[in-house]
Amino acid sequence: MSTVAMITARGLFGRRRALMLLPLPLLLIGLAAICRAYDLEPTQWGAAVIVGLGFAVVLPVVALIVGTGVLGSEVDDGTLVHILTKPLPRRDIILAKFLVAVVATAVTTTIPLFVAGLLAGSARLGAALAVAALVGSLAYTALFLLLSLLTRRPVLLGLVYILIWEGLLGRWVSGTRVLSIEQYVIAIADKIEPTTLLDAKLGVATAAVMSAIFVVVCTVVAINRLGSFSLAGETS
Amino acid sequence: MSETGVIHDIGYQRYTGPRLGRGAAINALYVQGLRAAFGLGRSAKAKIFPWLVAAITLLVAVIIAAVKSQIPDFDFGYVDFDDTLSWLIIFFVAILSPALVSRDIRSGTLPLYFSRPLRAADYVIAKFLAMVTAVWLLLGVPQFIMFLGAAFTTKKGMSGVWNEVQDLVPGWTYSLLWALLFTSIGLLVASLTGKQAFAAGGIVAVFLMTTPVVGVLSVLPSSAANHMAGLASPMTLISGVGAWALGSDIGLDLGRYGPIYGIEAFCLIAACLLLLLARYRKVAAL
């Protein structure tokens, strides 16, 4: 299991690939620092930077790239066969890859969000944002890992979820918010440190339970799916 | 033992037919790119996403045309249509550019292309034009449907139709601007990686992460920064050019910096194309 995790981590960060994850967090910290340097009121920029950039873009996009990358790239390259033929339970393969993806996503997102929260308010706000981002990393990564097993185009399907489900529908159609991870993250952060910057539209109990359901259901389905995984030939 | 020095004629022949040259190669690549953009000639799975986006835009256009014919005061122009659907355009670009460019890198067809009389510039131009056409069709056809709806229900006769034409042409120009800018950025990002997944994620990240920058710049305590805030993001950049050149009304105050928006849009497209050319000067066989 540790070998699978190591191979996955190397596939994710090897050569210069880790650098691809850097610009988004750096932009988040940079914007927060600029606003802070100009002594702007956090009410003016907090929502745009923390929610508009942090929770709506950085968290889902990083989770999408990492979550679909850990398994999807092995499916694409065909190297998954080598892991599947080893005498390892499929459960361990999924769990190892999920763990690596969560750690990578969490490290890339919690640190900049903590810094942004620190600059926008207090260390408590930063910690609240970081905890919420951690929950978000778990849920998003589980979902995108599952997507990479269900379809040959996980990234496009993930983009549909981020752009259309959460971005377009989540803003106007209130019913879709129950299935929107972004709203869970906002609700959890708002509960830990109530602030005017965040506008929670869901109860924290709903958010916590639904995040847990996302993680468990997606992981179980992914394990089940990998159990009967067949490698299709190259499709166009 | 047979006689030595016999060379057998196994039937190789020279090609004596017409040789079509660069023009035909560019044309073939353009047509193939345009067809691939909408999944024509590819599997059913490849058609799902482009046609999903196309169906949504067409549906929106039909709804708008219907509402407009019932409520004449409903103010929703051809330019507003592009701005409203900007997220869908991002998604469409994120589908198309990896399909056009990254696939060639991944499947190793690039060295084959360049063993023809095709040059790097030809390849870039063919792909660029194909994608500009595809994105423009995505926006222009629904706009034309809106035009038809308005033209057939107008109550002022031919002058009403002529008024609509005068609205439609700037709308089409505006769509062309969207297509040019988004295509150049999308192709540049996609040409850097052979993995379609990374390319699509990267394109969306580039477009989405610039939007909050505009929000921050527009609250900075400097009027110049506020007026030029729109320069930071491709979407607001195009809106700014539209406001300056076409006089459309957007929620952004340009001040006297309108021409800068035009200059930046032009420079951005030119720079992306030059970088694309530089990218294809050398093609490694992966």
From TrEMBL, chain A:
This protein's UniProt keywords: Membrane, Transmembrane, Transmembrane helix
Domain of life of the organism encoding this protein: Bacteria
Keyword Membrane recorded: yes
A Pfam family matched in the record: ABC2_membrane_4
Keyword Transmembrane helix among UniProt keywords: yes
Transmembrane residue ranges: 47-72, 93-119, 125-147, 154-173, 202-223
PANTHER family: INTEGRAL MEMBRANE PROTEIN-RELATED, MEMBRANE PROTEIN
Protein name: ABC-2 type transport system permease protein
Organism placement in taxonomy: Bacteria, Bacillati, Actinomycetota, Actinomycetes, Micromonosporales
TrEMBL record, chain B:
GO CC annotations on file: plasma membrane
Keywords noted in UniProt: Membrane, Transmembrane, Transmembrane helix
Keyword Transmembrane set for record: yes
Domain of life from the UniProt record: Bacteria
Keyword tRNA processing set for record: no
GO MF terms held by the record: ABC-type transporter activity
Residues annotated as signal peptide: none
Transmembrane segments: 48-67, 87-103, 124-152, 172-190, 197-221, 259-280
Name recorded for this polypeptide: Membrane protein
